[in-house]
Design a protein that fits this description.
The chain is built from twelve helices and eleven strands. The chain is of the alpha+beta class. A hairpin with a 3-residue loop joins strand 2 and strand 3.
């Protein structure tokens, strides 16, 4: 290390010059490079490579936990999703430990309506989760696009969610943040529940502190709002909110702040969905309102029980009304065929016209 005053060469990390005694670096400055290297990343840039493995394709969205990206895993040559955890979440050792424990449970769930979680890793102070990439559209956007779904469409999606939740609940895992933004509808119209990142094992006690509220206010059960222990019936409540939103186009309780919404979740009775959508069958309205009961003992006690009731109602709905909206982008083949037919048709009509005119002119 060269002294700025006398230019004398000194051993690395020397605080004072051995020749003239000039102070070279303070202890804080010596450790600065290490701190810089471990600075948390808050977002990734398209085209860059993260952790020497994941090539960033595009940002898919962001939420309370962090940003989600579609990436190419260059090691296995496959597209996956990567969630970059927010620094304030990742810096909490207890939270990271909880995520790690719950990931073990999430990986045990094998179902076609499951978004597979892969791993929780750290790269130079930045924590991230890797998971299956699903090509589709989240349910929240689908609801906004459609306004209100038919009873058949809503039941079709809700049944799939029930299957997924039943599998998770058997393993003792509660989602705790079930909402349309966490449900992807793929190109085949299948619902896939995402983000078990803040799920909690029913068997694991003490993973979250008493009074800690985890979730999204519009979809939280009354017991969640109060920071109490939750079980599978809390997910049933959240699914009831989603069903309500699918058929009416709006959530049962709205407000300017999380506190306002939370108070309504605990004390207000939701309007009957039929008041907002007269096409909703009475028996489906009864099911939705039962899911939204303030007392969890009065709700459906399992996802399987709710699914059985939905199947019963579905049997009375015409098959044509049950089809889940599917994404059908126009393919290049379809475009080629359409344009090809037009190109062939126009010249053919022109030739026929000329022949007809010729016959008229030359006819005796």
């Amino acid at each position: 290390m060269k002294c700025p005053k006398c230019q004398n060469e000194n051993p690395e990390d020397t605080l004072y010059c051995g020749k003239c005694g000039t102070q070279l670096l303070s202890p804080g400055e010596i450790s600065a490079p290490t701190k810089t290297i471990e600075t948390h990343k808050e977002e990734l840039t398209t085209g860059t490579t993260f952790a020497d493995r994941y090539q960033i394709i595009e940002e898919l969205g962001k939420g309370g936990m962090g940003r989600v990206y579609k990436v190419m895993d260059t090691k296995i040559k496959e597209k996956i999703a990567l969630k970059l955890l927010r620094p304030e979440i990742a810096s909490d050792k207890n939270t990271i430990e909880r995520f790690s424990n719950e990931l073990k449970f999430s990986r045990k769930i094998r179902h076609e309506n499951v978004c597979q979680m892969y791993d929780l890793n750290e790269e130079k102070g930045t924590h991230y989760i890797t998971m299956e990439y699903i090509h589709g559209e989240d349910l929240k956007r689908l609801i906004r696009k459609m306004g209100q779904m038919s009873a058949g469409q809503a039941i079709s999606l809700a049944k799939q969610m029930c299957e997924r939740l039943a599998e998770a609940h058997k393993l003792g895992v509660v989602h705790r943040d079930l909402k349309p933004q966490n449900i992807m509808v793929d190109e085949e119209g299948k619902a896939r529940i995402m983000d078990f990142g803040i799920a909690r094992s029913l068997k694991g006690k003490g993973m979250t502190g008493a009074g800690v509220m985890i979730g999204t206010p519009e979809y939280m059960s009354p017991e969640q709002v109060e920071g109490k222990d939750v079980d599978q019936r809390s997910d049933i409540y959240s699914l009831g909110v989603i069903l309500y939103e699918m058929v009416t186009g709006r959530v049962p309780f709205e407000g300017d702040t999380a506190f306002t919404i939370g108070v309504k979740q605990k004390s207000e009775i939701p309007r009957n969905p039929k008041e907002l959508n007269s096409q909703t069958p009475d028996d489906l309205c009864i099911v939705i309102l039962k899911c939204l009961d303030k007392e969890k003992d009065k709700r459906y006690q399992s996802a399987g029980e709710l699914r059985a009731e939905l199947i019963r109602i579905e049997q009375g709905i015409p098959t044509t009304e049950r089809e889940t909206p599917k994404r059908k982008p126009i393919t290049s083949k379809e475009i080629t065929v359409t344009l090809g037919l037009k190109k062939l048709l126009i010249p053919a009509l022109a030739v026929v016209s000329i022949v007809v005119i010729g016959l008229i002119i030359w006819s005796p």
